[in-house]
Amino acid sequence: MAYTLVSLYFILFPSLFAITRAIFSEELAQGIAIKREEKTTHLHFYFHDIVAGKNATAIRIAGPQDSSITDFGNTMMIDDPLTEGPNLTSKLIGRAQGMYAVAAQNDMLLLMVLNYAFTEGEYDGSSISILGRNHVFDDSREMPIVGGTGAFRLASGYALAHTIHVDMVEAIVEYHVYVTHY
Questions:
Q1: Contacts with 151 (C-beta within 8 Å, 6 or more apart), sequence order
Q2: What is the distance between the alpha carbons of residues 176 and 178, in angstroms, rounded to a whole number?
Q3: Tell me: the pLDDT tens digits for 69-125?
Q4: Which is higher by pLDDT, 14 or 174?
Q5: Cα–Cα distance measured from residue 63 to residue 68, given in angstroms and rounded to the nearest whole number
Q6: Are 162 and 174 in contact (CB under 8 A)?
Q7: Alpha helices in the chain (DSSP H)
Q8: Separation CA 118–CA 17 (nearest Å)
């Protein structure tokens, strides 16, 4: 009896595992077989980071006690407007939501972890995700697009940022974004 049970175990268990694996492999193969046309979209908009005042869109959530927001380790959570033009009163096309942190001890270098969620036009309901290094004092900064949702599902590409205005209350950054998606 014991011999029969051991034999069944070694015969049935691998067979059940193989059946489960075959079903999984078929589903995966069907997913890969879908062909989509890849395209690249150029987006142009303005980012408004308001760090002070009653309408602040960026707040400090972590960092050293009694330090300025530009000191190493300070981390800001944001919900910044994205507009068609450089004025805050321009048409709102989305929100930049996420966080950035000062990631260098002796320089103004930010680690950006952001979703740009679009609320207007053809890309309403879609978003792109940016995760990268932003050397604030460079005239033009390049950051990678690491994903997206909606029309930008499986997105990759890059964002070029150029600061057009900065003071103690607000920074206005022009973005040219090149998104490759399906």
A1: 122, 123, 126, 181
A2: 7
A3: 889 999 999 999 999 999 999 999 999 999 999 999 999 999 999 999 999 999 999
A4: 174
A5: 9
A6: yes
A7: 2-33
A8: 45
Written as six digits, the tokens of 65 are: 């006690």
Q: Are 102 and 131 in contact (CB under 8 A)?
A: no
In order of 84, 88, 93, 127, the CA distances from 76 in angstroms are 24, 20, 22, 20
Q: Rounded distance, CA 89 to CA 102, Å?
A: 29
Question: What count of other Cβ atoms lies within 10 Å of the Cβ of residue 111?
Answer: 15
Q: What are the tokens at 98?
A: 């996420």
Cβ 89 vs Cβ 96: under 8 Å: no
Which pTM value belongs to this model? 0.80
Residues in the chain: 182
Write the DSSP symbol of residue 23: H
Q: What is the pLDDT of residues 77-86, one digit of tens each?
A: 999 999 999 9
What is the C-alpha R_g of the chain?
Answer: 24
Residue for token pair 């942190």 = 101
Name residue, tokens 């015969």: 11
